[in-house]
Design brief:
CATH architecture of the largest domain in chain A: 3-Layer(aba) Sandwich
Structural class of chain A: alpha/beta
CATH topology of the largest domain in chain A: Rossmann fold
Strand order of the largest sheet of chain A: 3-2-1-4-5
Radius of gyration of chain A: 24 Å
Largest sheet of chain A: 5 strands, parallel
Helix content of chain A: 40-55%
Order of helices and strands of chain A: EHEHEEHEHEEHEHHHHHHEHEEHE
Oligomer: homodimer
CATH class of the largest domain in chain A: Alpha Beta
Strand content of chain A: 15-25%
Largest interface: A-B, 148 and 149 residues
């Protein structure tokens, strides 16, 4: 079997409409379903497909509804159609449990969960894009009873969306996202929560580190309430680990026991090195070059033109928000071996830089 | 009194040498002291000043040694000279305690602590730059007995270094950095520490959120051990708050109590909004435009040239590290009111974008 369509998308929010647009880009027929007639009109108007009618026979149903409604919507799709059914939710055991608990009436072999690692701080069909999944990881998560041809079809969907497939079991997936997504999110939320009532002159000392750590905590609380609730057991596991490590840290600091404190800090360094590098390859040593840039249109373009002329690939960029002056500090992250060359080259073009 | 020099810098690492270079840039005579003859030669060679001799009479001594040695070095400078003495350490009560506990032999009125909010993942004099403090906050932290003319002189030093002065008491300063710097650092360390032994296929799901949250945890554990130890009481205070909030979160999740979970998440959103915006002004609503960019030199330059031609000011940039393909996803953060215009303008120039 290969993906020839029609593909039905249930729930035309940001993710569902983006999947639909990517399928349309590949020339597939797309059928749309949503509880909101307005979202349905919007998504159709964007060229994401046409509203489904009863006579339609989809080959693949993609369920893209909020976590609280996922299990019911997947089950309904399995009962209503003969299609392969997948979903794009952030948690994979909860919808599977719903499908299996529905009993013999539901052909669970046609269900293969999946989870594209993409999103946006915006939501709704207007925020959607066929390019949303380009180059992102996409976890394809079969259960023990999933049919091989159903798995292959969901792999094809990820490929059509331009994503890179990662294969995990439902339990492994949920443990993985608890650790790599839900734990950092909740830690950021707790740190940010400690700022809400702080005096303004204390917050004047805020630096880029604080902004980096707390950035994700600004996301929609309603959605995250559903995500962590759907993965409560795995999240409680990693939160328990966090609490244990926090207690170790507090005890070491309280008793002035330096080696214990050093151990905690060193384990953190090891953790940052365990995160896969760009393009999934080994982590190369990176260096930073800081450049003072006047804060008006055109200056960043001039900087990147000069950096490009230095023939050094910029791996990452951070702009430090300057609290007092109309000058931004731009951090260019490049391969350590190329950093000195970039600095010299930029200085020769009149930029004020440092490392 | 106004700053006319000579300025003596004790400890010519990254911060000390950068202060020295900024003072030299302003035409001030700079005297250098360090326990390492090699660092002293390097800093002198960079034009940061000349080694101090016994006959020198500095007007201002800037102590820039590691936290563990700060109190002793400040006290020594007060005894050895008649100069105003400041330091650039991350914690302000610990060196003050050392000065006051030295008794009548030490003229504490000439001591005014300070703390520039700048740094780098690199260290040592070779990483220094006169531009390191440009536009950064610089906390000037007098104690109750500090002389007004001494305070004014340290304010001038911050101005010479291009920084923006923030005035705080020692106790307020230490509480402020515990909350805005030491707490997020330690939270990042604990989250990163939970990755060190995770299976590689779990880490394949790592996204930009995880990288943002854990980035600071890669910093030098030896330095951070000294920083948090020097501020142990204030840090224990905020870690206690963190533990209490973590317990609230765990209890809410364990009991399935959704309103409690929602409260924690909502407080996090409020905290991210409490962080001062760019240029210290009120936080303006920001929007993101995502652009697919081929991963080779010159493409970023082309993107920023096109963005500049759209006459939209780029407030921040994030480059998403792509695990599978030679295409980077660049997130351009701009004022929300300008985002749609930027997107349309970039698309008309052939870029694949989404919001």
């Amino acid at each position: 079997m290969s993906l020839t369509g029609p593909v039905e998308v249930v729930g035309v929010g940001l993710l569902g409409t983006s999947v639909a647009l990517a399928c349309r880009r590949a020339g597939l027929e797309v059928l749309l379903t949503d509880v909101s007639p307005e979202h349905l009109r919007t998504a159709s108007g964007l060229g994401a497909g046409r509203p489904r009618v009863d006579a339609d026979l989809p080959q693949l149903v993609v369920v893209a509804v909020p976590p609280d409604h996922l299990g019911a919507a997947v089950t309904e799709a399995l009962i209503r159609t003969d299609a392969v059914v997948t979903d794009v939710g952030s948690v994979k055991q909860a919808p599977l449990r719903a499908v299996l608990s529905a009993g013999e009436a539901v052909d669970a072999a046609r269900y293969v969960g999946s989870h594209p690692m993409a999103g946006s701080e915006r939501s709704g069909p207007l925020a959607a894009s066929a390019a949303l999944f380009d180059g992102r990881p996409w976890a394809v998560v079969p259960h023990e009873g999933s049919r091989p041809d159903a798995i292959a079809l969901v792999d094809e969907l990820a490929a059509v969306c331009g994503a890179a497939t990662v294969r995990l079991s439902p339990a492994d997936h949920d443990r993985a996202v608890a650790r790599t997504s839900h734990l950092p999110h909740l830690a950021a939320v707790l740190v940010a929560g400690r700022l809400a009532d702080a005096p303004a002159d204390h917050l004047a000392l805020s630096g880029q580190g604080l902004r980096d750590v707390t950035r994700v905590a600004g996301s929609d609380p309603g959605l995250w309430e559903q995500i962590v609730s759907a993965n409560d057991r795995a999240v409680l596991g990693v939160l328990g680990e966090l609490r244990e490590q926090l207690d170790t840290l507090i005890a070491a600091l309280d008793s002035g026991e330096r080696p214990g404190l050093h151990d905690v800090l060193t384990r953190g360094v090891a953790g940052t090195r365990a995160i896969p590098g760009k393009h999934g390859g080994p982590v190369r040593p990176m260096g930073a070059v800081f450049v003072a840039v006047p804060d008006h249109p055109g200056e960043l373009a001039r900087l990147f033109a000069d950096a490009g002329a230095s023939d050094v690939n910029i791996e990452d960029v951070h702009i430090d928000h300057d609290p007092a002056r109309p000058v931004g500090l731009v951090e260019l992250v490049v391969e350590e071996a190329r950093a000195e060359h970039l600095l010299t080259s930029l200085e020769s073009r009149g930029w004020v830089t440092h490392r």
